[in-house]
């Protein structure tokens, strides 16, 4: 009676098969040139292996990806037509089985067409829209069918500063303009109107040689989020040589009567101006904002410091006998973050 091999060497490669009557022989090594072997060789030297319906060994089966959520362990083939006797050979077409999958219902839905879709509000941040140009813009909800909520940041514009025109041998220093307010809020898609009007406030205009700077414009996202602009710097100091000082400009209000939103922050005040003598003075700095920095305070003659960023106030002008203009405030800004 034949007995199966008892060693690993007897299962693979060159095999010395042992029998009870001490009969033995050697089988050749497996090489590319000698891969074809009789059926009895596989029964003697290798255990049987399960094969899928297609007949391809399991280790050689090729996965097929039909979509992100379907796959197949192998390829199945079926005739596309039944030939007549003596007709041409069967033509074959590939059939890809669809696998069953389990999905997390916290993130996914299966619609009536059997399509796997993400649940609204589960996608997270998808897009950001920045409105930079002063003026009016429109936000249309229907343009974003996947929208679940928005997060809006609104920055009011900064105030401008006054110019100065001191008499010859005298001095005038001006206060800085105030920074604009800031508001932000999360808003659900159900709260949004079909179209929301967005307003980006313009920075306050520069004052003339003897006039105050203009106030910055308010910025808003519909009536849901509003941020007021900062006031302009005043032209309070008169020409002279004796010590003098003028107060700064109060920052934009953070009260609910002037602003709306989840987070409301007022603008920074414009700095006051001081004169020590006909040749020594310091003009006021511009007020800070949430998204910008006010113009610098200057001690040399010239126009006020230019604000940086968005919504900050302009620095005050300084004159030692020359005519200088004021500086405009920083423009506002509206940023809308879209979440799916």
Overview of the structural elements:
This protein is mainly β and 340 residues long. Helices cover 2% and strands 27% of the residues. It has 1 helix and 24 strands. A 5-stranded antiparallel β-sheet has the order 7-24-9-12-17, with no helix packed on it. The protein has a 4-stranded antiparallel β-sheet with strand order 8-13-14-15, with no helix packed on it. The protein has a 3-stranded antiparallel β-sheet with strand order 16-18-19, with no helix packed on it. The protein starts with 38 loop residues before the first helix and ends with a strand.
- Based on CA atoms alone, the radius of gyration comes out at 41 Å
Low-confidence stretches: 11-15, 22-28, 41-82
Fraction of helical residues: under 10%
Topology as a string of helices (H) and strands (E) = HEEEEEEEEEEEEEEEEEEEEEEEE
Strand content: 25-35%
Number of strands: 24
Characterize the main sheet. Answer: 5 strands, antiparallel
Overall geometry comes to elongated
The strands making up the biggest β-sheet line up spatially as: 7-24-9-12-17
Compute the separation of the termini in Å. Answer: 73 Å
Number of helices: 1
Which tags fit this structure?
mainly beta; 5-stranded antiparallel beta sheet; 340 residues; 4-stranded antiparallel beta sheet; 27% strand
């Amino acid at each position: 009676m034949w007995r199966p091999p008892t060693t690993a060497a007897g299962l693979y490669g060159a095999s010395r098969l042992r029998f009870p009557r001490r009969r033995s022989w050697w089988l050749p090594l497996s090489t590319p040139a000698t891969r074809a072997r009789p059926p009895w060789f596989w029964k003697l030297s290798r255990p049987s292996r399960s094969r899928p319906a297609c007949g391809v060994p399991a280790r050689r089966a090729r996965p097929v990806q039909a979509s992100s959520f379907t796959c197949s362990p192998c390829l199945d083939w079926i005739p596309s037509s039944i030939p007549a006797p003596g007709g041409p050979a069967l033509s074959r077409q590939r059939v890809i089985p669809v696998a069953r999958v389990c999905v997390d219902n916290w993130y996914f839905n299966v619609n009536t067409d059997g399509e796997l879709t993400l649940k609204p509000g589960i996608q997270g941040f998808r897009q950001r829209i920045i409105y930079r140009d002063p003026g009016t813009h429109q936000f249309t909800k229907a343009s974003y069918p996947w929208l679940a909520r928005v997060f809006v940041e609104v920055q009011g514009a900064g105030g401008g500063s006054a110019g100065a025109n001191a008499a010859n041998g005298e001095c005038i220093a001006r206060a800085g303009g105030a920074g604009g307010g800031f508001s932000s809020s999360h808003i659900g898609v159900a709260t949004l109107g079909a179209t929301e009007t967005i307003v980006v406030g313009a920075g306050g205009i520069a004052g003339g040689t003897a006039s105050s700077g203009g106030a910055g414009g308010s910025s808003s996202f519909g009536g849901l989020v509003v941020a007021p602009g900062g006031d302009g710097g005043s032209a309070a100091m008169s020409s002279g040589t004796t010590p003098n000082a003028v107060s700064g400009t109060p920052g934009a209000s953070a009260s609910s009567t002037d602003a709306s939103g989840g987070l409301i922050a007022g603008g920074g005040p414009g700095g006051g101006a001081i004169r020590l003598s006909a040749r020594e003075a310091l003009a006021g700095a511009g007020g800070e904002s949430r998204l910008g920095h006010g113009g610098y305070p200057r001690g040399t003659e010239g126009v006020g410091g230019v604000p940086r960023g968005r919504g900050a106030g302009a620095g005050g002008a300084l004159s030692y006998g020359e005519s200088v203009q004021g500086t405009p405030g920083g423009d506002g800004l509206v940023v809308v973050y879209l979440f799916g």
